[in-house]
Amino acid sequence: MKRKGIVAFLLILALGSGLALLNRCSGGDMATVRIKFNHYYQTTSYSNRNWVDRILGFFSTKAFAGMTWSPNLGSLGLSVTGQGMSAILVSIPSGSSEFTIDVPSGSARTFTVTNTLEDNGSNVPTNWKGKATIDLSPGSETALTINMIPVTRIWMITPNTETAYIGWVLISGVPISGYHVYRSLNPNGPYTEIPNSPTASNSINDSGLSAGTTYYYTISVFGSYGEGEMCEPYSVTMY
């Protein structure tokens, strides 16, 4: 009986080891994600051309108008976050249009991609970000497309009696619908959209503020592709 017990124990141990090995070989609790960075562009409109231009258009190549994100706009930074996992930070070489990575499986895995070009101070966007959140099953292989959307920057906030005047960079060369303006009492949020937002302008007044209080503002771009990421917060102390 004793010998049979030892044999049974060894069989169970071998079976457990085999299952563990199979689990590792099949991906275990990891999932493979192939990320494609979606180029954002606007094609030139031909709807108002006369008949001569339309005929000549058959013999020409359609051009792209406006600034677009492309893999040549600097190297990319990728972060993957989610509950129960340590954040993953990866640098992706310039020129990459897609990237494959293994991450822990689970629900609500958030992939954030940003380019690393320095702000050149102009209205043409140099900062682009994209984000997507998906659920991942153990051992799965998933294709994920992330839209790269321009990010503006706040260049001035002027306090007045109970009112703050906020101005930011007007994104040019990219077809956008407008901007969402958010306010918080903490730089890390949470942020709440202010009255009169969204707006198509690159400035707005925020009224009803309290003297001696510091407020933090951030702005996001939105359009037919959705809402982009918020820019770096900018603070102002009212008087």
Provide the descriptors you would attach to this structure in a database record.
239 residues; mainly beta; five-stranded antiparallel sheet; 18 strands; elongated
Q: What is the overall silhouette?
A: elongated
**Average pLDDT:** 77
Total helical segments = 2
| Class computed from helices, strands and strand pairing | mainly beta
Cα-to-Cα separation, first versus last residue: 87 Å
Work out the oligomeric state of the chains in this entry.
single chain
Low-confidence stretches: 9-27, 41-67
Q: Classify the helix fraction into a percent range.
A: 10-25%
Question: What is the percentage of strand-forming residues?
Answer: 35-45%
The description of the largest β-sheet is: 5 strands, antiparallel
Topology as a string of helices (H) and strands (E): HEEHEEEEEEEEEEEEEEEE
Total strands = 18
Q: Which strand order does the major sheet show?
A: 5-4-7-8-10
Q: Give the radius of gyration.
A: 25 Å
